[in-house]
Amino acid sequence: MSITERHSLNRITLSGYKSIRELKSFRLNNGLNVLIGANGSGKSNFIRFFEMLGHMFDPNKGLQNYVSTRGRADAFLFRGMKITPELDAHLEFGRNEYRFTLRAADDRSLFFAHESTPFSGPKYGPIINDQGSGHVESALIRRKNLSASEQWVVNTIHDWRVYHFHDTSPSAPVMGPCNVVDNDVLHGNAANLSAFLMNMEKSHPNHFAQIEETVRQVAPFFGAFVLKEISNGQTQLLWKDRYSDLLYYPHQLSDGTLRYICLATLLLQPNPASTLIIDEPELGLHPYAIKLLASLLHEASQHAQLIVSTQSSLLLDELTPEQVIVVNQKDGESVLERQDPNRLKDWLEEYTLGQLWEKNELGGQP
Predict the structure, then answer these.
(1) Dihedrals phi, psi of 280, to nearest 5 degrees
(2) pLDDT digits (tens, 9 = 90+) for 247-271
(3) Is 49 strand, coil or helix?
(4) Quick one: 7 and 81 in the same domain?
(5) Does residue 364 belong to any structural domain of this protein?
């Protein structure tokens, strides 16, 4: 299935959300979209919006749980609920749309003041699909007998995940065992990495072999994964050194190598979601690994839409201006801007994109 058929996120409108006062009908590429900006510019806020969506469309998590553990309404509204009483969002993908307004309640929770899933039907014209108002969780995950267009929106957004492979501490979920059957979708923190790879080894051996070979390019000592049940219904990420028959545990990998394994698995999987969101994938990677990561991102963008945040000038060096979104902090609000290739054409004859960013020619610097 092509990217066009999968209906990537075409445009997004956000107002009143965290540091984003207004982002109007912002276009996203079907392929690769990379956000750069200084610390505190608002890159993470944009990424966190997709994290919130994921909770909204997960019946086991939900909006209220997400809001209550992250500062309640004031943490989600531009300059707090006294200044901004509600936030609005409008997502457009293919013929489908998802619109919602979250309003602050007196107890500092958020509730749906509006929710709808408009559909531009080719046969019968536009359909609003109004979901009502006043509910505290998305009506789409509570209702039964959804229409085909409503179900499509639910399935699509439910598949979106923010991937954040920062935690490689000894107690990180990726270090421990996981259920063998938990292998359908790679978790956002790679907690089920071993089960996901184990399933891929059986069902998609060519993709599995490509992941192993890609890891060897960064870690020449790496021999192969050893994926099996370590106890009843449990598996763990074990591996062999290419020069030894000894088995090793994930904590015996460097932080950078383990993160690269997670990234390679995510980007080389056979059936990715239509949109993947990745937060600072370059963290802890060697410069050579960052260049290889760029190749993985380009390859994956042929099969899925990618939204990536970064602070790596080396990663920017491997991109085109059309793929870069600069996030600036202006008068206390985050402003997202795409680059004009024509403006940068002469500059790029002498400098790379990363160098131009470091020189503050692109913006996105403190």
Answers:
(1) 45, 65
(2) 999 999 999 999 999 999 999 999 9
(3) helix
(4) yes
(5) no
